[in-house]
Amino acid sequence: MKKYLMMMFISLLFASAVYAEHPEYNEKQVCLDCHTECSIDKIVMTGKNKEKAFIDKTFRQFDEEFGEKHCYNSCHISKCEDCHKGSGKNISKPKIDDCLTCHKDIYTGIEYTGLGIREDHERYKRGIKKDGEYYLKMLTDVHYEAGMQCIDCHSKNNIQGSEKAKDCLSCHTYDISIIDHSIKGHYKVACISCHAAYSTMELGTFYLRFRESSYSEFVKELPQISEEYFKSSFMRVNERPPLVIDNDTGKYMPAKPSKIIFTTNTYKDLVTGQENNMIANRWKVTYPHTVRKETVLCSSCHDNERAFLLESDENRILYPDKDGLALKSFYNSDGFSIDNARFVTRKEYEEKINIKSKEYLQKYFEKLDQLKALINKTVP
C-alpha cells in the first residue's frame, strides 16, 4: 500500500511539472487523462474553419481583422472548464445557465427559459436583465417547466457531433387519436413545426464601421461592439418561424435568418463603397426551444403564404427595398439561400399545401367542434 501511494505521489509530481511547463496541455489534457471517451477538439464550437471561411468570403473585403476582433475569441470552447464549471473534485456537469453563457440573444437557447429578444436600440433596455442584456418575458418551454436540463436532450455524444440530439419521438408517441396527428399530410411535418410557440429572429443585421469619423455620434444609442464598430438590426421579432423542407428528413421544419448581413464602412466622414451593402443572405433550419402542448390553428399554414416565405407584393407590410436595402421582403425566399434545406416553391404551396381537399374540410370542422366544446366547458 505504501509503495502504491508513493508511486501515485511521484506520478502527480511528474504531471504537475509537465502541466506547469506546458500550460496548453494543462487546460485540456488534465481532464482527458481520465475521461478518455471525450474529445474536446470534436465539439462544434472549438473549431473555427467554417467561421473563417465565411469571414474570408464576406467581411475581409473591407476589414482584414474583423474575425480576430469580433468572432474567434467569443463563444468558442477552448477547454473543458468553459462548460464544466468549478475545479478539481468540485467540477460539475453543465447546467442551463452555463449553456446560456453563449446560447443567448438571437442564438437558440435563451428562449427555453421564457426570455424573448428585444430591439437593440438603447430605448429598449428595460425588462428582465440577464448577463448584461435585456429580454422580454415570454412563455417557457414545457420541458423547462418540467425541470429538464439541456443535457437531458443534448448528450456528450451530441455535443461532440457523433449523434443527434433527442427528438420528440425519443420520448413521446405519435397519438393518431389527436385530430392533427391523424392527417396523412402532417406525417411530413416535424413535431416542432406545430408545437414551437415562437422563434427569436433577427431580420437583417447591420455592422457599421466608423474610423476617424464624427458620424458615430448619430448611432451612439446602438450597441457598440468594439472601438470601430456599432451593430444594429432592421427588426428583431419573437414570432412563429416560417417552414422549409429539410434535406435530410424531407420534412417541413422551422427556419430562421442565419446570416442576413449588411455593412457600412465609413472613414473620415466618407462612406467607402456601398452603404448598407448586403454581404450575406442565408437562412438555416432551426429548432426553437419553445415547445408547448398547444398547437397552431389550420390557418397558420393553410391560407398563409408568408408561413412558407412566399409573401406576395400585395400582402407586404415591410418595405426594406424602399429603405435602401437590396431585398424586397424578409418573408419571401427570392434572393436568399439556405443551409441543408430548400425553400417551398409557389407551385408546391398552391397544389399541395393550400388546397381545400375533402379531408382538409372534414378535419377543419372537427377542430372547430372541438374548440366549441372546449369553450362551452370552460366559459360559464
What does this structure look like?
There is one protein chain. The chain has 380 residues and is α+β, with helices and mostly antiparallel strands. Helices cover 24% and strands 19% of the residues. It contains ten helices and eleven strands. The protein has helices at 2-21, 23-32, 49-57, 66-70, 96-99, 142-145, 156-159, 191-195, 346-353, 358-378, and strands at residues 115-117, 128-130, 133-137, 199-211, 229-239, 243-246, 252-267, 270-271, 277-285, 337-339, 341-342. Strands 4, 5, 6, 7, 8, 9, 10 and 11 form an eight-stranded mixed β-sheet that branches. Strands 1-3-2 form a three-stranded antiparallel β-sheet, with no helix packed on it. Strand 2 (128-130) and strand 3 (133-137) form a beta hairpin. The longest helix has 21 residues, at 358-378. The protein is globular. The protein starts with a helix and ends with a helix.
From the structure above, extract its key features.
globular; 11 strands; three-stranded antiparallel beta sheet; single chain; alpha+beta; 10 helices; eight-stranded mixed beta sheet; 380 residues
